[in-house]
Amino acid sequence: MEEKEKKIFGVSWNVFLLGIVSFLNDMSSEMIMPIMPSYLMEVLNAGKLLSGSVMGAIESMSSLFKVAFGYVSDRFRKRKAFVFAGYALSTLAKGALALTRYWWDFLLLRAVDRIGKGIRTAPRDALIAESSEKGKTGKSFGFHRMMDTLGAVAGPLVAIGLIELLKSIPSETMYRYIFLLSALPGAISLFVIILFVRDRGGEVKKKIRGISTLRDRNLQLFLAVIAIGALGRYSYAFTMWKAQELGYSVVQSIAFYALFNLIYALSAYPLGVYSDSFGKKRMITIGFGVAALAALAFAYAEDFYTLIAAFVLYGIYIAIEDTIPRAYMADLAREYEKGTIIGAYHTVFGIFVLPASVIAGWLWGSYSLAYSFTFAALMNVTAMVLMTFVEE
């Protein structure tokens, strides 16, 4: 990054713009995320195991493409084109959900949305790293996740407003209207990308050369730990199903979800900044511990205050684990392969998120949600212990 590049809120202009893009897209996504569990079960008549599996497949789908498109963006050094294409595909898919009639066409469109995410995420994260000051990647990724999650706070609140505004019409029609309206913020973000975001990787030679960081045993161990932690990464849908199991309405469960996103948004930036001096490896280790506490709180929550504590811990956990590993991988990667290395992290994570939600869905259907969350806690404790063997 050029030293004289304009900064805003302590980060480069490019990082700030990518934060705006993520804010708009996450607002778009989170307008529909809270209603999707109810839509699957009430409108599309999907059962517990199928619903859990579908939500897990959706979460996992995008990550399968991230290392491939990270590598391609390394080769062409044109991150912006991949960022735009990925966001455009997702925007179209979200709006088209209004036309779904069965769980399989719902899954197909969500898969298209997630493929869009798979196309854009590693190139975007590489662009953030390339637009950051040396030694300040935690700050940049923290700011980006903060903006992304503020969109996730705004989205459910907009959803609540729309539900109240449209409550006089049949619920199925209401859901479809919300799906359609969710495409608007995404469309606006596409203009921001076209007009203002700049590629920053042109100074690095196009040719991929040297020994890849992926051959480093410490990095391989870290990715193995990420895989185990991902097995304990249950879909957000399970937290909302827990709230509804305790007797809260769909609107009230959306409010809980908005609280989680608010905690996430408020935590991501300061935790990212602090990780630059505290140590990213130690912060990630703490994150797994917080994840275990959150899962146990969800497992045994029987009252309002325990449920609130669970959502707060969940927000802090996701703020750490969605922010710091990206910065950690960016620091480890050589300049000519940042997209590839960050993409590898996302891909490993995504591959293991799918069985995590399938297992959680099976435990829910066969026993109870408490078993689903207890399994998640066990996986995160295991990951926390194994992180002590990873070098800083």
CATH superfamily of the largest domain: MFS general substrate transporter like domains
Give the biggest beta sheet. 2 strands, antiparallel
Query: So what's the CATH class of the largest domain?
Result: Mainly Alpha
Tell me the overall shape: globular
SSE order, one letter for each helix or strand: EEHHHHHHHHHHHHHHHHH
Taking Cα atoms only, what radius of gyration do you get, to the nearest Å? Answer: 20 Å
Number of strands: 2
DSSP helical segment count? 17
Placed side by side, the strands forming the largest sheet appear as 1-2
Overall mean pLDDT stands at 85
Named at the architecture level, the CATH assignment of the largest domain is: Up-down Bundle
Number of domains: 2
Spans with pLDDT under 50 lasting ≥5 residues? none
The share of residues in extended strands comes to under 5%
C-alpha termini separation: 25 Å
CATH topology category name of the largest domain = Growth Hormone, Chain: A
Helix-strand makeup class: mainly alpha
Helix content: over 70%
